[in-house]
Design brief:
Layout: H1 3-12, H2 14-17, H3 25-33, E1 42-46, H4 52-60, E2 66-70, H5 74-83, E3 89-92, E4 108-113, H6 122-135, E5 136-146, H7 151-155, E6 161-167, E7 174-180
Parallel strand pairs: 1-2, 1-4, 2-3, 4-5
Antiparallel strand pairs: 5-7, 6-7
Helix pairs in contact: 3-4
GO biological process, one term: methylation
Pfam family, one: Methyltransf_25
Protein name: Phospholipid N-methyltransferase
Length: about 180
Amino acid sequence: MNKSSLFKELFVNIKTTGAVTFSSKSLVNKMLSFAEFKGAKVIVELGGGDGSITRGIIDRMDADSVLYVFEISEHFCSNLRRQFGTDNVKIICDSAENIDNYLDGQQVDLILSSLPFSLIPKESRTAIYEKSSLMLKPSGFFIQICYSYLLRFQFASYFSNIRTAFTLKNFPPAFIIICNT
């Protein structure tokens, strides 16, 4: 699948992708700089999209780690499976609100998300926040890319420690919200 096909999918499904372009390499690197990959055995990505964050995670994770990538677009899932079809990368074509159906009670070291929470219905959004905070190890982190600082306040009911970072090296400029319990 070529980039123009991926961009078409991005615009056709703007309500679920929530972006006008894919995350820049600078944004991906900054987001992932807040994650401790050494020793992280169970990693979850919410919103795999074109695979730019997925690639960064795979490049940093331990060889014996498992990455679960949740994506609701079948088009994007097909592309992700072609790019990252290995035993330790699980591409799941389902909503992130069903995360608990796929991890068999495993605790998660890292959750990395680019979900467009401001466009997700409140009931689904709440389920994602609740399940993510419950499945995260006490030492784990939930790291979110977003375009509004106000999203930070939605995380406050589910995570006790929240900090933010900002980068201009993306279009549009983006916030990174780093949460842990």
